[in-house]
Amino acid sequence: MSTSPKDIEQLIDSGYEHGFITNIESDTVPPGLNEDVIRLISSKKNEPEWMLKKRLSAYKKWLGMTPPHWAKLDIQPIDFQAISYYSAPKNLSDGPKSLDEIDPEIRDTYNKLGIPIEEQMALAGIAVDAVFDSVSVATTFRGKLADAGVIFCSMSEAVQDYPELVKKYMGSVVPDRDNYFACLNAAVFTDGTFVYIPSGVRCPMELSTYFRINEANTGQFERTLIVAEDNSYVSYLEGCTAPMRDENQLHAAVVELVAKEDAKIKYSTVQNWYPGDAEGKGGIYNFVTKRGICQGDRSHISWTQVETGSAITWKYPSCILTGKDSIGEFYSVAVSRGKQQADTGTKMIHIGENSKSTIVAKGISAGQGQNTYRGLVKVMQGGENARNYSQCDSLLIGDKCGAHTFPYIEVANPTAKVEHEASTSKIGEDQLFYCQQRGLSEEDAVSMIVNGFCKEVFNELPMEFAVEARKLLNVTLEGAVG
Amino acid sequence: MSTLANDAEQWLKQIIDKAVKVTDTEQVEWFKDIRNNAQLQLQDYTAPNRKQELWKYSNIDSLFKNQYSPVDEELDAIQQVDIDEHFITDIDTYRLVFTNGRFMPHLSNIQNLPQGVKLGGLRDALKTDTDMLASWFGHAAKHYQHVFSALNTALINDGLFLHIEDGIKLEKPIEVINVSLSVDNALIIQPRNLCVLGKEASATLIERYISTGDSHYLNNNLTEVVLEESANLQHYRLQEESPTAYHLGSVFLSQQAYSVYNNSSISLGGAWSRTEFNVDFKAEFAACHLNGLYMVGDGQTQDFHLNIRHDVANCSSTENFKGILYGKGRAIFDGLIYVAKDAQKTAAHLSNKNLMLSRQAEIDSKPQLEIYADDVKCSHGTTIGQLEPQQIFYLRSRGISEQLAKKMLCLGFAGEIINNINIECIQEYLNRAVKNTLQVESQANVK
Amino acid sequence: MISIKNLHAEVAGKQILKGLNLNVNAGEVHAIMGPNGAGKSTLSHILSGRDGYSVTQGQVTFENDNLLDLAIEERAHRGIFLAMQYPVELPGVNNMVFLKESLNAIRSARGEKVLDAIAFMKLIKQTAATINLDEKLLKRDVNCGFSGGEKKRNEILQMALLEPKLAILDETDSGLDIDALRIVAEGVNALRNENRAMIVVTHYQRLLDYIEPDFVHVLVDGQIVKSGDKSLALELEEKGYDWLKPEVAA
């Protein structure tokens, strides 16, 4: 007759489709972390002295810090000396890259992942920066973007070509001391993306970075910086995958966004790092610090994330709303299944008058997954007429998972209006029955209901990626039904 | 093992040292053991500080700066007339008066109790009903939940003892009036209350905290409530302490199957007030409803902590707390709903709504859901906002002054909680109290 | 078309159906009436395969197959449609998307071509118009924020779209005012034909003023205690159900 929760749980075991390894020769520094390693990274990247100094100063601070206390996460201590802090495909180590010179193996990797790095094949209107382990291997459509005045390049190049901008903004939103992993990143970051949109420019295409961890025992420490000058607009998307490996790999990135007057930055993430196997072996530790500052009046930063991968996710893309009438948004879908643990949310700091923020977080827990929303809405004394609306909904699939909601709300201005709502439920048996009675298979019924649950968030993604995100969610939940 | 930080360590030591002198030596063995253990435990606690999640927003430092002495003698300065003015009129109750934590039979009226109901002071019960007390004492409460419950346990002196046998439905409400007053030294007053309702028993308990003056003291009270199968308790808690007093109240609740607990807590007084509810469901199909109203103004902090643990299936809880903040008032609300792995079919819904009437007020709200079972219906919601200008406009357009309009809207806001109390004269009493508080507020706000 | 023999079923250990027999042929409309708790909803749920019911005895044959062996959606594919007493809300799921998925799932199971978006749009608009359903409801989430009448009309829309062989209408009249009831009944009547059978489950006779049944059965305490034509319904309206109860005992 009909399906029992057990049948549904059996459906859960779908594989990770991006788990292959690319066989290329890599230039990888031996594991370990000390000043010499940092000097080595800096010299491999041919960095100016000021950058090395910045790194060493961060490293010194880091040595004095202690790892964070993991609120709701069950985590093995990380051996920072067992990680290699730099790995690059060999033929990229020396000499400049051009799109034609890319190793065919790497090109194949990206094609297999569905990320076109050849411009003629590219999705219309999307420029890609492809980061492979520690280095950027390709950045497309640079010419077209340059015509519009947009800078879109790897962080390594930005350090060389736009030192003043990097000096001015790097670390201005996420200072070294912000947290343990951000500080580590400041010391050892290897590459990442730099985007600069000049005043009055609407970036003519979607920008995206595609991160791939390939080499074993390496960590990926990328650094992304997006600066949107007055009255500009940019939409940026990042995607992430990694091979299936038995050991945990660390990904500790820092993303900084700066939005000036009337500027809007839309930042979308589809995170699908390898989550580890069913027993919780392997997988990426995804410890990321993402923060944007709405510096100018009427500036607008919008974070959208679909988090389906990683063994452990720990990230709180945040907005500091300094400008008057500035807007911060956070839309999130986080899925944890198997033994995945996700602790994610946002911080909205209301400093400017009439600043507004919206939080929509959807957590889906299946298998033995643990999903935590942790968020802060803080209205400072000057946050006159600040408005926040938060909605956090959790969906539980199966009886071994958990869903937790920990919002912190701090208001020191009486004209502020803050509303937070959260709910937890499972897919209703009556909803499943209804769909099945209308001829849908159980799996289709679940996928339809879950997609409905996530709709508000998917609506925020750029169209092509919304389709991808839906597919990804369906693949992730294949069989995760209960 | 960490120890108390210096300030707090000193603070505790001086209280305990002074208390040793007044310890009643005639006490029964098991009771003495509990006290002594608690004193030992106290040495191992980490003092509450703002790095701890439970004390993140509560400024406890100022408490440790004050010196408190345990009560060493009965307070005979309190006369019937002093108490009379605090009586809620038109209500017929079994009345127990405690002054500075000690039961005062001559000020109380507990005549004509039905058979099967024990009601009186804990200290007396220790002599008359020691076995009954021994079997229930500590049943619901964790003696050493944190430093303050341990402190209460270490120096237990007196408090309410209520035991109702199976099947007895007590119609007349029980009113417990705790009057506190420090004359020379600032006192630490630690009522320890125990209420046990047998199977299918029911009762109404009104627990009041008042002061006859505006003296400075610390009332660190702990109330244990045990509800046996299908028992039903209406519990009203009215905190109207002196404006300079510190008040720390912990309620520990243990519920058996099909029992129902309704609580309305109204917290208006004190300079610093913290109320904690610890709810444990021991068996299925029990229901717990907590309602709270807090009003905070200049120099006041009100703090509510809920720890609702759904460890078994099929229980339901609702938590509905509202706050009105004015002047430089500061409020903290921290409400955790925990649903264990097998607690299927749990229904738990929490709401915290705050009205901010002044520029300097501050609120921190932290509702939490921690859920490990899938077939549950749980939600929480928090709002922080102001009176709706359209509503004020509407009232004014009907000829009502702005002041009055605001007051009416505040009363309406508070009414949702007050109306849960199903004794009309208490509702009226509280409406008056809220009105008076708002009066003070509106005078203070005149620029 | 469907034959129910000596059906015994329980819910959570409680015996609800106690030997129910019923034969329904193509083209017939059968009304099943009975007091609350007689087992009316249990019957419609068992026929559509809902979880939580266990059949302890008896059999149900649908077009010569054992119906009870089929999964919920297989029954839907074979042409069984249940119009629910309380249609379920699906937040975030667009009604149009839902209807399309459902129709195409059933069409492909029948070996028919699935409809593309344009063909589907045409069909749905046409169908919605015939039952007077506001097109706005198609754009909303399934049943979310629908009035009682709108939900029931949405059910009839699905029935018209999916063209079932056997439609089971479970208390379709509940919660409807007289105008809504008439519209829904007209929708149902329009769908009556010689190939389609219907089982109309209802507590009250008034629905049968609008949907005239060929047969009326009275279900009391898990058994059909009396069968007749539509005049039986009027008799029930007049006398209530109590007079039938002794017959059970007898």
Radius of gyration of chain C: 18 Å
N-to-C SSE string of chain C, H for helix and E for strand: EEEHEEHEEHHHEHEHEHEEHH
Share of β-strand residues of chain B: 35-45%
Q: How are the strands ordered across the major sheet of chain C? A: 6-9-10-3-11-12
Question: How many strands, which pairing sense, and closed or not: the largest β-sheet of chain C?
Answer: 6 strands, mixed
Q: Biggest interface and which pair forms it? A: A-B, 33 and 35 residues
**Category from helices, strands and their pairing of chain B:** alpha/beta
Number of helices of chain C: 10
Kindly report how far apart the N and C termini of chain C lie: 31 Å
The coarse overall form of chain B would be globular
Average of the residue pLDDT scores of chain B: 88
Averaged pLDDT of chain C:
87
Number of helices of chain B: 10
Helix-strand makeup class of chain C:
alpha/beta
How many individual β-strands of chain B? 21
User: Kindly, what is the distance between the CA atoms of the first and last residues of chain B, rounded to a whole number of angstroms?
Assistant: 53 Å
Q: Which sheet architecture does the biggest sheet of chain B show?
A: 11 strands, mixed
- The oligomeric status of these chains comes to heterotrimer
Gist of the model:
The complex is a heterotrimer of chains A (482), B (447) and C (250). With 447 residues, chain B is α/β, with parallel strands linked by helices.
Describe this structure in words.
The complex is a heterotrimer of chains A (482), B (447) and C (250). By secondary structure, chain A is an alpha/beta fold. Chain A is built from twelve helices and 24 strands. In chain A, strands 4-3-7-9-12-14-17-20-22-24 form a ten-stranded mixed sheet, covered by helices on one side. In chain A, helix 2 runs antiparallel to helix 3 and helix 3 packs antiparallel against helix 9. Chain B is α/β, with parallel strands linked by helices and 447 residues long. Helix content of chain B is 25%, strand content 36%. The model of chain C has no long low-confidence stretch (mean pLDDT 87). Helix content of chain C is 39%, strand content 29%. Chain C has 250 residues and is an alpha/beta fold. Chain C has ten helices and twelve strands. The chains are: A alpha/beta (482), B alpha/beta (447), C alpha/beta (250). Chains in contact: A-B, A-C. Chains A and B meet through strand 22, strand 23 and strand 24 of A and strand 20 and strand 21 of B.
